[in-house]
């Protein structure tokens, strides 16, 4: 049906909806990328009490809106009527009842009647059945209770009164007057959305919207009912039936006593209480004649789809009671001038066929896992013996075994176990804290050491008991550096320190942990590293000296070679110059002799 929608961006690992769900119809699934656990309502298992919507702290769950369909219905049909739940008086703390009706007429509804009119007939029918029955009769006006019995306790179906709810009875009455009329129910109940789709009930109410949707619709249309004059219902103005949304209201309307000390009638509200009662009814003595059951604690006035600003449960109840007291005056001013049904009229309507209905066995049947499978799942979260099973309920299930079964049925995830995840996180933290080769000290805002790991003991050469409680400045870091973290809000401070008394050189990193109001002092022993650096520097120095000596020697050799080359070059030049001069002189002498034999020029 996709009735309850979940905003996945807002749904994150809290399990509150699962804890609040009496039938555990919440399926926990992992998001595709973030792998965060998110809740999804499994409507095949859900009784639609709507508690998960009301309980969600992130408001991640909402109901698929139906008022756009109603608006479209009004646009094409001029005979759309409202069947208004009597809890409307408690829903709108800032409005008078007549202003609510005026606001509805502004939306275009052709007529408005109180569902409580039909509640009188339904109450009378329950009384008549209970008086003739040999066993206890369970009221059937709450659709969430009907879902609970059909799906989870079908053995109680014979005890469930075969009577429609006031909503269905009222719609049938309105359509009996005008077969083409369209009926819209407005109330605080989530299960009503589903009730109109059940077999045998699909032709009665055309649409359901909640009080929350009504407020949204008014806002979209720019309607402020608080600025409107009071208007009145079209038709009868019931008296006792206006108490119907309170626990005990049906019994009171039926003319029976809702006295909690009476053994003839019993009122049970709250789905948990109803489950307990139905489960243990066989062992109850004496058995009440008529049992009024309501899924919402205190009745419909605490329905899941009441507006957020509708005050607390006590204030809502008092507004209903005050409305009942003022009802005679309202009836006198009602233009229709009609009174509540008389006792004989109630009895007459109680025999009408349109009050009858049937039920179906929709029992949820799940495959039960074996004990071996359950033990395997329990072992996944570190539970190997019964004493390991805390049964704390933090995951939303009543016991570790129940949660293990849910895992095997695909409804839960092993990592939903909060104590296990905490232990796992602590073990991983301990692995980092105690397994790191660096010393780690936890220092409080008073600058005293709160804790330390074994590596710190090794570095400082003393035991944990000797250091814890002493000032960190005595051992590793100055107070001024700690104040930079605690007072100046620096995230990280890094510095190198020599510890001559320990023969160490350390790199100190101070990290702020603001939420815990502590600082983590991480001490890394870099003595060997610094020694290697010193040795490397010495090697570099010696190497440079040797290189310089070689260079100097090479220069000296080069200079000597250059000197020798210069001397020999000079000597060579002198000899060659003399030789050239001699050769030249000899050439001149030879030229004078040879002139005698050359032929004269012609």
List keywords for this structure.
602 residues; alpha/beta; Alpha-Beta Plaits; Rossmann fold; 5 domains; five-stranded antiparallel beta sheet; four-stranded parallel beta sheet; 22 helices; 16 strands; 43% helix
3D structure, described in words:
- Helix content is 43%, strand content 14%.
- The protein has five domains: 1-64, 2-Layer Sandwich (Alpha-Beta Plaits); 65-355, Rossmann fold (3-Layer(aba) Sandwich); 365-435, no CATH class; 443-525, Beta-Lactamase; 528-567.
- The strands form five sheets. It has a five-stranded antiparallel sheet, sandwiched between helices. The protein has a four-stranded parallel sheet with strand order 6-5-8-9, with helices on both faces. A three-stranded parallel sheet has the order 7-11-10, sandwiched between helices.
- The chain has helices at residues 16-20, 51-55, 67-76, 88-91, 97-106, 116-132, 143-152, 166-177, 191-195, 211-221, 249-253, 271-280, 313-325, 327-333, 343-350, 371-380, 400-408, 418-435, 454-460, 464-467, 479-486, 527-594; strands at residues 4-6, 26-30, 37-41, 61-63, 80-84, 111-114, 137-138, 182-187, 207-210, 265-269, 290-294, 439-444, 449-452, 492-499, 504-513, 518-525.
- Residues 330-347 and 592-602 have low confidence and may be disordered.
- Helix 6 crosses helix 8, helix 6 (116-132) crosses helix 15 and helix 16 packs across helix 17 (400-408).
């Amino acid at each position: 049906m996709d009735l309850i929608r979940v905003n996945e961006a807002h749904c994150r690992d809290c399990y509150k909806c699962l804890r609040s769900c009496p039938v555990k119809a919440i399926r926990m699934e992992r998001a595709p990328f973030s792998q965060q656990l998110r809740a999804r309502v499994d409507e095949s298992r859900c009784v639609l009490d709507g508690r998960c919507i009301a309980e969600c702290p992130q408001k991640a769950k909402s109901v698929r809106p139906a008022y756009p369909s109603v608006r479209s219905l009004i646009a094409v049909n001029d005979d759309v009527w409202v069947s208004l739940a009597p809890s409307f008086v408690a829903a709108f703390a800032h409005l008078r009842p007549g202003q609510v009706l005026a606001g509805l007429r502004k939306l275009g509804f052709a007529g408005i009647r109180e569902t409580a009119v039909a509640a009188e007939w339904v109450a009378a029918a329950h009384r008549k059945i209970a008086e003739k029955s040999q066993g206890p009769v369970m009221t059937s006006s709450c659709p969430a209770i009907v879902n609970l019995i059909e799906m989870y306790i079908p053995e109680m179906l014979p005890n469930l009164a075969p009577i429609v709810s006031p909503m269905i009875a009222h719609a049938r009455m309105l359509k009996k007057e005008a077969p083409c009329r369209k009926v819209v129910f407005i109330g605080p109940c989530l299960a009503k959305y589903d009730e109109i789709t059940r077999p045998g009930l699909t032709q009665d109410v055309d649409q359901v919207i909640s009080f929350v949707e009504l407020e949204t619709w008014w806002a979209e249309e720019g309607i402020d009912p608080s600025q409107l004059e009071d208007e009145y219902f079209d038709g009868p103005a019931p008296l006792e039936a206006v108490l119907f949304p309170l626990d005990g209201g049906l019994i009171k309307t039926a003319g029976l006593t809702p006295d909690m000390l009476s053994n003839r009638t019993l009122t049970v509200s709250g789905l948990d209480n109803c489950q307990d009662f139905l489960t243990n009814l066989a062992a109850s003595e004496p058995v009440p004649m008529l049992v009024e059951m309501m899924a919402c604690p205190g009745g419909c006035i605490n329905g899941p789809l009441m507006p957020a600003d509708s005050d607390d449960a006590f204030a809502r109840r008092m507004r209903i009671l005050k409305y009942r007291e003022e009802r005679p005056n309202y009836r006198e001013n009602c233009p229709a001038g009609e009174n509540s049904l008389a006792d004989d009229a109630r009895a007459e309507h109680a025999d009408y066929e349109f009050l009858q209905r049937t039920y179906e066995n929709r029992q949820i049947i799940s495959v039960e896992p074996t004990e071996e499978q359950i033990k395997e799942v329990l072992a996944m979260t570190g539970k190997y013996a019964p004493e390991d099973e805390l049964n704390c309920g933090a995951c939303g299930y009543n016991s570790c075994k129940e949660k293990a079964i849910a895992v095997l049925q695909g409804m839960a995830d092993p990592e939903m176990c909060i104590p296990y995840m905490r232990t796992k996180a602590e073990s991983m933290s301990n692995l980092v804290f105690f397994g790191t080769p660096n010393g780690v000290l936890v220092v409080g805002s008073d600058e005293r050491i709160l804790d330390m790991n074994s590596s710190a003991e090794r570095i400082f050469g003393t035991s944990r008991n000797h250091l814890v409680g002493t000032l960190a400045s005595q051992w590793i870091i100055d107070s001024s550096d700690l104040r930079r973290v605690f007072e100046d809000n620096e995230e990280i401070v890094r510095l190198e320190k020599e510890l001559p008394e320990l023969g160490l050189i350390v790199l100190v990193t101070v990290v702020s942990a603001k939420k815990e109001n502590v600082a983590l002092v991480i001490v890394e022993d870099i003595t060997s590293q610094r020694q290697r650096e010193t040795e490397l520097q010495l090697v570099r120095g010696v190497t440079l000296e040797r290189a310089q000596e070689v260079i100097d020697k090479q220069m000296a050799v080069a200079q000597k070679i250059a000197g020798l080359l210069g001397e020999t070059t000079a000597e060579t030049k002198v000899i060659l110059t003399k030789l050239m001069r001699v050769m030249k002189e000899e050439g001149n002498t030879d030229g004078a002799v040879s002139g005698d034999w050359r032929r004269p020029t012609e």
